[in-house]
């Protein structure tokens, strides 16, 4: 999979140029309100003394790192607050590939396209390993693909685009595999607040020097534009990551970090519960319409994406454009996520028009 301009942008541009109304189900931009405490935090910061507008600690505001550390049961020194989960994953992947432990990278297929892009940019040799039919990682296939040159394994759970929540046994097996071949497992848990099974367990509960966990507040607080994420490293790996972060970014945004801190401290669990309930309703309505359309689909256990396959209508870029023009619904071509689900189309249920889009698809097919 060669890395070029992400297909996301091509699809969005095509949808924007369409001469009809189009329901955008392309990208994972939440459409709901952020926590009220986040807005309050921004207002508070605006009235701080001018010295608070200068550089903050490079690794992140001390209080924010402390709050994350307490919630994740780690030491604050292990945390780097980053420019979203994107930088968190970049730092983790760079740390894996700069250890002189090889340049092999094992990724799932289907895969979030930015993973192979980052890996290739960092000089990694990417191998896509197809998941099992239901979307669970095929651990044995991963083991067969691993070699002494494997330096990095990436697992995103809950998963984009399949919606699968990987079992604890799967994550333990991947950590064990990473230890066996001296690779690093990067567990991207950015969708951890969107678990509909009640069975998600963070990889932080698996103790290992070969495990890094990344996350962000972009999705859980509906603030993708704030770019506040974090990576949690073993003590032996964190210093080099902090140096790379400092050289690339100097430091993160103080007002964004402060607002997130206030939201963490003051937002009640009901905020997240209501969001999950709303998304569960959307998932039910959308998959009911897919049943009506005679489609195969993945029902999300987590995150907020649905992969669907329509008979005689493979998920190519050309067919995605056709769906925009003829049905007024924009999704992502399956080929963007790798060859294993190239016949499928991914829909992001982060629009209040998800039910309307579902009806359009049912009528069209």
From TrEMBL:
Its cofactor is pyridoxal 5'-phosphate. Residues 21-352 form the Aminotransferase class I/classII large domain. GO terms for molecular function: pyridoxal phosphate binding; transaminase activity. GO terms for biological process: amino acid metabolic process. It holds the Pfam family Aminotran_1_2. SUPFAM superfamilies: PLP-dependent transferases. Keywords: Aminotransferase, Pyridoxal phosphate, Transferase. CDD domains: AAT_like (cd00609). InterPro entries: Aminotransferase_I/II_large, AspAT/PAT-like, PyrdxlP-dep_Trfase, PyrdxlP-dep_Trfase_major. Belongs to the class-I pyridoxal-phosphate-dependent aminotransferase family. Homodimer. PANTHER family: AMINOTRANSFERASE, ASPARTATE AMINOTRANSFERASE. This is Aspartate aminotransferase. It comes from Haloprofundus marisrubri.
